[in-house]
Amino acid sequence: MLSLRIVNVDYYLTPPLRGLDVTYSHFRGAPVKQVPVIRVFGITDSGFKGCIHVHGVLPYIYIPFDWKENPDSVMYEIAYGLDKAINENAGNYDKQHVFKIVLVTGVPFYGYHSKERQFLKIYFYNPATIKKSIQLLQNAKICNKKIQPYEAHIPFILQFFIDYNLYGMNFIHLTEWVPRSLNYEDGKYIHCYIIWVLSDIEDPQ
Predict the structure, then answer these.
(1) Which entry of 38, 49, 136, 200 is 20 to 30 Å from 7 by CA?
(2) pLDDT, tens only, 12-67
(3) How far apart are CA 32 and CA 16, in angstroms?
(4) β-strand 30-31 against 24-25: which pairing, if any?
(5) Letter string b/e over residues 160-171, b meaning 16 or more CB atoms within 10 A of that residue's CB
(6) Is residue 148 part of a domain?
(7) What are phi and psi of 18, to 5 degrees?
(8) Locate the DNA polymerase zeta catalytic subunit N-terminal domain: which residues (predicted)?
(9) How many domains does the chain have?
(10) Residue 125 within any structural domain of the chain
(11) Can you say how many angstroms the Cα of residue 122 is from the centroid of all Cα atoms in its chain?
């Protein structure tokens, strides 16, 4: 087992690596052009500096599913609408921002609810597009209706911490990893590792 004390965390966008990232979106029927990779900097339990590159984690938000139409048609309409609106705002016209949308169930966080209800979980490629997507949904720019997103206020890194029960200055424990490089700096070795977290996204290809 590899253990690294979490000191600093960030992410970067990069073309997907075959075997570590998803390279094709079956939902969109298109190849994936870029994915976020989380970097965890810290100290191993043996005292070495280290950096872990975490593949296979995508940012997401939830929206209530309260349509009468078929879920599949609604999912594609939302994905297309978000892509189009974000691209028009950015001056692009052919870029995909939504990786996929899946139908899930859960108990709403706001208010009192005794029963579960259905939600759409929207995965994005770039965490930076979340804020714009929230504005579009809340301002009725998608599907011509105001939509209240859930868990949309949580930053990407914090979302990763919550989902995998991680804390700053605590250890992240790995049972599987791939060594990436070994550098020598300031009289100490700096170890670099790669891990992949697939959760419920898709298997790497």
Answers:
(1) 200
(2) 999 998 888 999 999 999 999 999 999 999 998 888 888 899 999 999 999 999 98
(3) 7
(4) antiparallel
(5) bbeeeebeeeeb
(6) no
(7) -60, 130
(8) 1-55
(9) 2
(10) yes
(11) 10
CATH for 33: 2.40.50
- Measured at the CA of 95, the angle between CA 89 and CA 97, to 5 degrees, comes to 80
Report the run of H or E that residue 138 belongs to, with start and end. helix 130-138
d(CA 40, CA 159): 14
Q: Strand 49-55 and strand 60-64: pairing? A: unpaired
Q: Cα separation of 178 and 171, whole Å?
A: 18
Instruction: Judge whether 155 and 163 are in contact, CB under 8 Å.
Output: no
Please tell me whether residues 66 and 53 are part of one structural domain: no
Q: What are the pLDDT digits (tens) for 85-144?
A: 999 987 777 899 999 999 999 988 778 888 899 999 999 999 999 999 999 999 999 999
205 assigned to some structural domain: no
**Residue 196 pLDDT exceeds 70:** no
